[in-house]
Write a structure and sequence with these properties.
2 copies of one chain form a homodimer. By secondary structure, chain A is an alpha/beta fold. The first copy, chain A, has helices spanning 50-53, 128-140, 157-168, 180-188, 202-209, 223-232, 261-264, 281-294, 310-317, and strands at 5-9, 22-26, 36-45, 74-81, 91-94, 101-105, 109-111, 148-151, 172-177, 193-196, 214-219, 233-241, 268-271, 301-305, 325-329.
Chain lengths: 330, 330
């Protein structure tokens, strides 16, 4: 490995980030302290929530520091170990992404459960995105067999997992996505209907696709999608608020024509992060591991090659360039 | 009684209602069928939720019918009975308001618990508005001792009850109201701070009054107040959504600059109507009856005199003309 290149947060974006906010720099190899390990990263994850970390605002995860390497989910192989807990050659998950090589105390790295799956799935259906889908749908929204579920960004990493978990649990599913290709894939995943949000107002499409209304909304988008869900909600509907990608970058604050239906329909909505449910990860690995093994839940990846492409991959999330999980392979 | 005058819904309003939507007409005395009673109304309630019933839209209560008498909470005295369940002279609560005299099957009328309170309180702290405050604060938002509670329209009928229940339960309370007089009364009720929403942006005032943030928001207003609550919410804040008077009449849909905080702060919000908790009315009468008897919860009324004034009283709700409960005395 020639050096250790990492993406540095060079400046904080206003609105949509662009390449000027990032700088690729060789940060060298940190000396390995006692109890530390060194990992050569194989897969980097880029996720919409990272946009929030580019702001200097306290949120559910601390902001990235200016002039420092960015962070994020990664899977790699141990290449050097000064810890009794890890051996060279082991594959690990950790949060020191956006760089070629990561070093740190053993506690910052996670061994992976013994399952016959490909490495990158620990960043997708068996990682952050799968756990977000699982806990949001089943714990936050308490979705159950027979429910009518609406999920936005259904061709994204989280959304595509929500569609498949909901079908595995006997729910009716309506997914939204941008464009005919993505909608076709959402239907392939098992969705009973797919809404192309580029093809007219979401509220109109949703009310047509769900004439009886919806019991559950899994929100990845905010804005018009959330407003449409207010309009379509049945009595005692539950909304799991996972993300609002439409509102991450600057723009006018979103307006909600149907928010008053919260009262009439007794809508419950709640924001969450998958880490709220860390104590229940055993349930997740059991269920999701089973669905992945049986093929009930499959993944699809949009893969960028090489550390150089990481910002492109990240920026592509906000242009809807990914089908399924957006990844960078090193 | 000379005839039986009632307010008829003459036309449906667009935006803010005005007198042209109402017509006072003598509807005469209905013949009393077997099992029916006739009640002479003494007090009529006017409430913001009635604005929704003026629209031809299915909501949590059915719309008022065009050309028919309007309905609403009322307290009156039985003047004629063909039911074994009621005797002439008894005081009852029922929903056939907006008229001088009401007749119907005994099942449409409720006997009042034996408590030493004035009749009109069955339309206030011991009626719809008190129950709304009680169940919204304690059941929907699960507010508990030590919580920091924000309540909008705190000088209104529901809001003033929320302030006092919260103080009786050992919470810190910030109330909003329009104007110095109302804010002074909110403080008299025990609120730790009062915000005058006419005196600058609510979000700024709330963040100043609650530097540590809020655990609970009781929403009677929607719009800017709800957005301010998003901004000020602490981790795991709970919002009980009772009303959105700011959004009942036409206007641009409300915009929310801080709605993304739902995720970071894991905000739970839920709409409700007090009738969702009918099975727990025993708890309400026990607790609220005790607080009213001890003076821990007091009421204040803005009283209009005579059936002729009912629309004026109702329209006054949207101009903030009431301190406490708005009533019409016949």
């Amino acid at each position: 490995m020639a050096g250790n290149r990492a993406w540095i947060l060079k400046s904080r974006p206003e609105g949509l980030p662009d390449m000027s906010n990032f700088e690729l720099r060789d940060i060298g190899a940190e000396p390995l302290e006692d109890g530390w390990i060194r990992v050569e990263n194989k897969w980097l994850s880029v996720d919409p929530y990272m946009r929030g970390r580019m702001n200097d605002v306290k949120s559910y995860v601390p902001p990235f520091a200016l002039g420092e390497p960015m962070q994020g989910g990664a899977v790699g192989k141990v290449v050097e170990s000064r810890s009794p807990h890890f051996e060279v050659g082991e594959t690990v998950f950790h949060m020191l992404g956006w760089r070629e090589s990561a070093a740190g105390p053993a506690s910052a790295f996670n061994k992976l459960p013994q399952m016959p799956v490909e490495d990158h799935q620990w960043l997708g259906n068996l990682g952050l995105t799968g756990a977000t889908a699982y806990f949001g749908l089943l714990r936050v929204a308490e979705a159950k067999e027979g429910d009518i579920v609406f999920v936005s960004a259904a061709a994204g990493a989280v959304g595509s997992a929500v569609v498949q978990i909901a079908k595995a649990k006997g729910m009716t599913v309506i997914g939204s996505a941008g464009g005919a290709d993505k909608c076709a894939w959402v239907r392939e995943l098992g969705a009973d209907a797919a809404i192309d949000y580029k093809d007219g107002p979401v509220v109109k499409s949703l009310l047509a696709a769900a004439p009886k209304g919806i019991d559950v909304y899994f929100d990845n988008v905010g804005g018009d999608h959330l407003d449409a869900a207010f309009a379509a909600a049945r009595q005692n509907a539950r909304f799991a608020i996972c993300g609002m990608i439409e509102n991450y970058n600057a723009g006018p604050p979103p307006a909600f024509r149907y928010i008053m239906r919260v009262i009439a329909a007794r809508i419950m909505m709640k924001g969450f992060i998958y880490t709220d449910y860390m104590a229940e990860m055993g349930d997740f690995y059991r269920d999701m591991g089973g669905w992945v093994a049986s093929g009930a839940v499959t993944g699809r990846e949009t893969i960028h090659e090489g550390i150089e492409t990481a910002p492109d991959a990240f920026l592509g999330l906000f242009k809807g360039e990914n089908m399924g999980k957006m990844l960078v392979r090193l």
